[in-house]
Amino acid sequence: MSDARTERGTAGIECRRFDVAGPMGRLSGRLELPEGRPPVAYAVFAHCFTCGKDILAAARVSRGLARLGWGVLRFDFAGIGESEGDFSRTGFGTMVEDLVHTADGLREAAAAPALLVGHSMGGGVALAAAHRIPEVRAVATIAAPADPAHLRGQLPPGTEEELRRDGEADVTLAGRPFRMRREFLDDLVERSREQRGLIAGLDAALLVLHSPVDSVVGVEEAGELFSAARHPKAFIGLDGADHLLGDASDAAWVAGLVDTWARRWVHGD
């Protein structure tokens, strides 16, 4: 079941709190809609690893799409931000489940998403979840790795060894402490075996957006992702943008690119 309550939004946007029942408890979301007109279609935005739905990249891209006519639901994965759940018991697989449950909640309350947008690890999650959401016609990834195992290289030095040895560890990610378990690594290995097949079998159009100067997820990941997918697909280089789209103009650019590209696949216009 979903819980949608109207909140004060920004100019041209109606913003509602939108909570969904997930596998680990309540998933907290924000549904942003174009003010005064029905949306052209609905989308779900999946945020980067440990970032949360309110990170600037997620908020700016989602609101940019809403201003352009989309209904966009961004949410916190379990154990992150305002969502319930124990982060130490999450992993790539639980993120996929969270996205599927969020799409189910949106379908029940309004309409199923025709578009999935995923940033960084959220892009990989969107690709893995798309085959379980039959209404999805398009997937757009932003600075996404081709393989979930890429995340192992982003952990602080010695973390993987400590997790393998002790079974759990306190890890600082993006300046915040998180408790992690060895099962997180095991899940990454398992999901990595499946991901390329899921990308190759994607029954939706794919847009790969990636900056050639991304210092967190190298652009070579975009090349592998693009190569693994079948047509229809497109790649656009986000020249000069950083991984988190820290410049507001870059986020607006991304929203415009996704809008222009996705409409063709969602409505044929």
TrEMBL record:
<protein>
    <submittedName>
        <fullName>Alpha/beta fold hydrolase</fullName>
    </submittedName>
</protein>
<keyword id="KW-0378">Hydrolase</keyword>
<dbReference type="InterPro" id="IPR022742">
    <property type="entry name" value="Hydrolase_4"/>
</dbReference>
<dbReference type="GO" id="GO:0016787">
    <property type="term" value="F:hydrolase activity"/>
</dbReference>
<feature type="domain" description="Serine aminopeptidase S33">
    <location>
        <begin position="58"/>
        <end position="146"/>
    </location>
</feature>
<dbReference type="Pfam" id="PF12146">
    <property type="entry name" value="Hydrolase_4"/>
</dbReference>
<dbReference type="InterPro" id="IPR029058">
    <property type="entry name" value="AB_hydrolase_fold"/>
</dbReference>
<dbReference type="InterPro" id="IPR000073">
    <property type="entry name" value="AB_hydrolase_1"/>
</dbReference>
